Amino acid sequence: MRAPGPGWRHRIGRATPFLLLAPGILWLIIFFVVPSIQMFLTSVSTGSVDSGFKLTFSSRAYETAFTRFPRQLTNSLVYGGLATVLTFLIGFPVAYTIAFRGGRYKNLLLFLVIAPFFTSFLIRTISWKILLNDAGPVIGPLKEAGLVGEDFGLLYTPLAVVAGITYNFLPFMVLPLYVALEKIDPRLIEAAKDLYASNFGAFRRVTFPLALPGVFAGSILTFIPALGDWVNAELLGNTQTKMIGNVIQDRFIGQGDYPVAAALSFILMAGILVAVSLYARFLGTEQLTG
Amino acid sequence: MKNEIDAAIDGLTRRRFLQGSAMAGFGAFLAACTGGSSPGASPSNAIVIPTPPPATEAPSPSPTPKVVTGPLHWAQWPAYIDLVGKAGEDGEYKPGSSPTIEAFKKKFKVDVNYEEKILANEDFYATIQQQLVAGLSTGWDMITVTDWLAAKIISKGWAEKLDQADVPNCSANIRDALKNQVWDPNQDYHYPWQSGMTGIGYNKAALAKAGKAEPKSLVDLWALPANRITFLNEKRDTFGMGLLKLGKSADPQSTTADDLQAVHDDLKPLTDGGARFVGNEYIQDFASKKTWAALTWSGDLASSGSEDDRWVAPTEGSMIWTDNVVIPKGAANKYTAQLMINFCYDPKIAAQIANYVYYVSPVKGAKEEIAKLDPDAAKNPLLFPSDDVVAKQKNFQFLSDELETKMNELYSDLAGT
Questions:
Q1: CA B346 to CA B363: how far, in whole Å?
Q2: Residues whose CB falls within 8 Å of the CB of residue B150, separated by 6 or more in sequence, listed in order
Q3: Helices H, strands E: what count in chain A?
Q4: Which of A223, B55, B361, B379 has CA atoms 20 to 30 A from the CA of A42?
Q5: B129 contacts in A (CB within 8 Å)?
Q6: Is domain A69-289 given the CATH code 1.10.3720.10 in the classification?
Q7: Whole-structure pTM value
Q8: Which homologous superfamily does the CATH classification assign to the domain defined by B198-319+393-415?
Q9: Which residue, among B156, B101, B80, B95, has the nearest Cα to B125 in the 3D structure?
Q10: To the nearest whole angstrom, how far is the Cα of B224 from the nearest Cα of chain A?
């Protein structure tokens, strides 16, 4: 008879990674895989909420989804893309300053970046209505000074939507950038300068490449939710600025057309997956993990 | 999600100028329902109006035990009951801010969970529809929904049958014009909460500043700068008014899909030019002068707007509708809900509510009680509209499935989704 001791231990040891992964995998199966399958099945069903949906493997929803909403899809891509670029342009200097010049105020500055997030997403978006209003602090003084016409307005324009998305997702860009920049060994930059690199040269050849994982993570974290966002378009836009999220919301709640809503969600998800894998390939997958 | 957003918006800006500001043409009220021409009540054989389920089940399968249980869960529209104190100014209910609810709690020693959860019929319906389809409880004991939705819920057998013996005030005091609805002729499943009209709201000062005349008709409203007007996301209101604007009769029986298409084509240049669809949050856009004029409901600007806000019934006509209290199937506290409905049909209580919300009370005798509470309100010419206004009220609530589908499609196209 063999002693169970070491062999048993060994087996447990080998199983450890799986055991540690189990809660996460279980979570994903219950809250991602199962709903995804359900969503796909809904997207190929026909019927109505009142009479119930029957699985008919109809492609009607996908036909509608692909043909009816070119403007809203374009809006999503353009607004999401613009917002991502803007958060990067605004966020990088912020993250850079905090990482390299923050000194003992680092934690305070980081806190300030996330402080607005203690308020609800909705309230923050609604605040932009007040900011961008005709009599608000942005346009009001310009109007008083006669710099813009009486009918000039920002609220309920595409600009307001992009501004709202940019603001709402800024920390998702700043924090990964900060983490990447903070990790950079300052001695590498010193070395570059010792080798006669200019300030800008050192930034371009050393700092920025080392910060790329942060850029990658930040832009993914910003672009994906921005693409699916509908709150900013709903609250700050007009009928011409609706994004694909608004269509999904309307199909689901307004019209009870679950198949088209599900098809659109599925297409959006698949589209993002493709875009992210291309992006990852372009920047290198290892960047994902830093 | 949408409801929460709207609630948040609403909570931010509602201001209330009780009784202070006279609202032009704001009346329409009481006469709206007393007038002989109440179109909603006219039965018809041409149109598919939802009717109550056939009484195949046993007359009373499970008599409701006459035991007060709670808390009573009541889903309601914002600022749709009497509010006092700070809540009265904000137009947002907080526990303790409604004398009616406090009196009910005290009288029956039961808690009331009153929530301003309904900002649009469709959005609210979407939150309870699946439970109702599945035969589950919605979590609500009382909901307040507009005619078409009340009729839909009742016709599908998703409403609890009321024990008339428990609601004596209701059967005694309901205004005659509101009785005999085709979809529930014997008040087996519903009692009206308030009635109101859809017309034109505008800000006098903003229009004057821009050198625009105050709109008297829908044609006037349509002619204002598109990015300064809004329409209602309650589709029946917007399409009904759109029909009137085109000189068509907003009568569900004679309206065709082509008529709705004509309304869409008439509105399209406006939405392309920046006109938007909103719910109760139009109050906020009026306050910020972003909106100069809009399709609005009769009571809101009176109760929650500024002194420059006016409401008129357009010369082409207006929409009339009623919000109704229904007890959804599976309600845990049905008896208590009945007690509450009955309580609110006491003319004194009804007057107290109507005098705050500025909508038409369905309760006989409320008018006299309002006069006692507030002599000005009863004398106010705005409260009692001219026969002309009453004669031109239309009910565009009950649409055939075909029309409803068409309207939904056209609306989505206009709304940009």
A1: 8
A2: B183, B184, B190, B324, B326
A3: 15, 2
A4: A223
A5: 49-50, 256
A6: yes
A7: 0.79
A8: Periplasmic binding protein-like II (3.40.190.10)
A9: B156
A10: 13
